[in-house]
Design brief:
Layout: E1 2-6, H1 12-23, H2 26-29, E2 35-36, E3 46-50, H3 55-62, E4 68-77, H4 81-89, E5 103-110, H5 117-136, E6 149-155, E7 159-165, H6 187-197, E8 205-207, H7 214-223, H8 268-291, E9 300-304, H9 307-319, E10 327-330, E11 345-349, H10 364-375, E12 385-386, H11 393-409, H12 412-428, E13 432-438, H13 443-447, E14 453-459, E15 462-470
Parallel strand pairs: 5-6, 5-12, 8-9, 8-11, 9-10, 11-13
Antiparallel strand pairs: 1-3, 1-4, 2-3, 4-7, 6-7, 13-15, 14-15
């Protein structure tokens, strides 16, 4: 089978390495042969691979960086909408799902000559519905909010590719998050950034603006070998009850992943593979618990000035099946000190663009709402409707966010905070590597520190940079 694993733009190389690691697991090798495409040299929004059908289960369970795992159903040239209908109607959809299940179809495009993606979507939807009606005598209902089955099509200038989505809800929705907080950061983006930093379990990881704890929870789950899909897969049974506020009620073990609602995965052989994958993962977790029996043993800590966010972090930590309570303090970032007095480690932070730094103003709530809306926007080529010759609504949204952020950057209190924080890093965190994810391209100048590396990334529709700063030890006078 052919898959395309979607990820946030800029993380393709990290995803390729992660897919290689997943394929090399003993339980993955037992499923059959995997062939992973080389890492793309430019952003493509994902990575392709060939693998057995069962690989969809391993990918959805283990990939921390993936947004979705798409199973390729067909690829062909096209010139007009009728070509899309002909291709989709010729596929044996009845072998994958029934007419009693609800359906959603999404179409995306890059340089497509078609004038309307909505019409293209309608033609593919009609083709699937007509096929099922002709074969079964009944037609599926359309549900754009909570569908049982998702079909995606991607149009280039000359080719159309049709996919079945084996993930269902986006994979960054792990099921442990109670609320997003004021500066939303998608979990799979956080996991990808962790891989870019090269952080190792033996190093201290510290986030002085940890918010609801996304970076630190992802890192702790890596150390404890907890799969990103552990809660959604039902691995913990009744011991893990996903938050009622966890993005959507579908992010539960009852609904799990999209592949669990597709007929081929109900066969006894596939059910056995799924049980074996979960059993193997659970055995790894139990073994790691012996090595890391409590939060203090993890070398992971954080701080935040906002008491409410610190409490939220603690709740998220527990729902993520991590031991005890996180090592976290309510503290101003300007007063943060290296944990345990260490003279080296990795600091990783996502500054909240002003609204969580007790910078008073009348636009704080408005800014938070803008960012939360942005977090619900698509993040890659499979979710962005890029129509040739016209500016899409989503691109307009991205530009409005940039304009709003540029206005906030001029807030003198925020600019002064950044200057002070940069000096604090120089004075207090010598020997540390500091990584900062921000949409502010001028951040190094505001911190008055020269970056050693910058990596382009996307947080939802918001174009960002991951800056690396190497903090040198102060020379003794």
């Amino acid at each position: 089978m052919r898959f395309f694993v979607v990820c946030p733009g800029g993380l393709e190389a990290s995803l390729t390495q992660e897919l290689t690691n997943i394929a090399q697991r003993a339980d993955s090798r037992a499923l059959g042969k995997w062939v992973i495409d080389p890492a793309p040299t430019s952003p493509t929004g994902g990575v392709g691979l060939a693998a057995p059908l069962s690989a969809a289960m391993a990918l959805n369970l283990h990939s921390r960086i993936a947004s979705r795992v798409l199973l390729q159903m067909a690829e062909a040239p096209y010139r007009q909408e009728e070509d899309l209908y002909r291709l989709a109607s010729g596929l044996a959809w009845e072998e994958w799902f029934s007419s009693k299940q609800t359906l959603r179809v999404d179409v995306t495009a890059h340089r497509s000559p078609l004038k309307s993606l909505n019409f293209a979507t309608l033609k593919i939807k009609d083709a699937i519905v007509d096929r099922l009606r002709d074969v079964t005598g009944d037609r599926p209902s359309i549900d754009t909010a909570f569908p049982d089955v998702r079909v995606q099509a991607h149009l280039t200038a000359t080719q159309v590719t049709i996919y079945l989505d084996t993930s269902g809800e986006a994979l960054f929705k792990r099921g442990w998050r109670d609320e997003k907080g004021d500066a939303p950061l998608k979990e799979n983006l956080a996991a990808g950034i962790l891989s870019i930093t090269g952080w190792k379990p033996s190093q201290m990881l510290f986030d002085p603006m940890c918010g609801s704890g996304t970076f630190l929870i992802e890192a702790a789950q890596v150390l404890l070998a907890i799969p990103s899909g552990a809660i959604r897969s039902g691995m913990y049974g009744d011991d893990a009850k996903p938050s009622r506020l966890a993005y959507r009620p579908l992010v539960t073990s009852a609904h799990g992943f999209g592949f669990q609602r597709l007929k081929p995965f109900h066969e006894a052989g596939e059910q056995k593979h799924w049980a074996d994958l979960k059993e193997s993962a659970l055995a790894e977790i139990l073994e790691k618990r012996k090595q890391y029996p409590n939060a203090e043993s993890l070398f992971i800590s954080g701080g935040d000035i906002n008491e409410k966010l610190v409490a939220m972090f603690k709740g998220n930590w527990q729902r993520a099946q991590l031991p005890g309570l996180p090592v976290v303090r309510q503290v101003d970032a300007l007063a943060a000190k290296p944990p345990a007095g260490l003279t080296g480690g990795v600091m990783l932070l996502n500054p909240p663009y002003g609204e969580r730094l007790v910078i008073k103003g009348g636009r704080g709530q408005e800014r938070t709402a803008e960012l939360e809306d942005a977090d619900r926007e698509p993040e890659n080529r499979f979710e962005l409707n890029l129509e040739t010759g016209r500016q899409s609504a989503k691109r307009s949204s991205r530009e409005s966010l940039k304009r709003l952020q540029a206005q906030e950057e001029q807030d003198p209190k925020f600019v002064e905070f950044l200057r002070q924080f940069g000096q604090h890093l120089k004075d207090t965190f010598g020997g540390w590597n500091v990584y900062v994810l921000t949409a502010d391209m001028a951040l190094p100048g505001q911190l008055r520190i020269k970056e050693s590396k910058r990596t382009p990334l996307f947080n939802g529709p918001l174009e960002c940079r991951l800056f690396k700063f190497e903090m040198h030890q102060k020379r003794e006078s």
